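User: I'm writing a tutorial on reading structure tokens. Could you give me a worked example: one chain, its sequence, then its tokens, then a sentence or two explaining what the tokens reveal?
Assistant: Sure. Here is the example chain.
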Amino acid sequence: MKASAFASFAPEIVSQVRNYGKLMRVDKPVGTWLLMWPTLWALWLAGEGTPDQGLFLVFMAGVFVMRSAGCVLNDFVDRKIDPYVERTRTRPLATGAVTPFEALTLFVALGLIAVGLASMLNELAQMLAIVGGALTFAYPFIKRYVSIPQFVLGAAFGWAVPMAFAAQTGGTPELAWLVFGTALVWAVIYDTFYAMVDREDDRKAGVKSTAILFGEVDLFVIAGLQGLMLLALVLIGYRAELSAWYYGSLVIAAGMMGWHLWLARDRQPAGCFEAFLKNHYIGMVVFIGIVLHYTFNPA
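And here are its predicted structure tokens:
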């Protein structure tokens, strides 16, 4: 009888676990990749091609946990808006598949895991982790009050960079902040593409974004930010004394940036969303360039 009761109850448990996974965006890993690539840039640059294995595992777990926690909190804050936005109306909180209490419980659980991971780092990295946590918490709220929430998102997504340098080297040199600034600019680029998908719905809901702020010159501004990002990447190569392998990756990245602008040229939601989805390949290409440099040009 007990076995039969469990068998009938098990599908409900599995279904709810899947809803929690959707709330954490486990089924949509692009956000994890966008957070992961700058973290890997930092780990390899700080470790000069041989980052500490333990730190690598801690930061990769941290990328997943913090991105998941950010998604849960974002959906909790937006739970009364998402049902009226085409792209978000099927999210678990918007449909009622997950209750607000369940979402908050999941967020706290993920936060505790993040604290546990941070406790494995040195003191400076732990202090920086507190700032990173504050940025993650602030983003879902700040987009209601400022027109440039993408910059806050960029700071949150890039904050693992100084943390990685601090954990690996015990300090945050100029190179760390240069990589952080590059990651921030990149986040503004890809999240503006993302915001262009929801621009009309966001206007109606009163949500602010750079897509609304930039208006008709959005693609022009994105192109300018892409140029700034490329310049910053060149400066990173110069400061880190990277070789032609790295600069070759930047040429490929530049071509991809042009392709993303082309995808969004008509400002249609589908094209803008495709440009957002494809952006993580830029981070991957840059990372490959860094790895190839340290593989064939060891210190």
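What the tokens reveal: The chain has one domain: 13-296. The CA atoms of residues 38 and 102 lie 31 Å apart.
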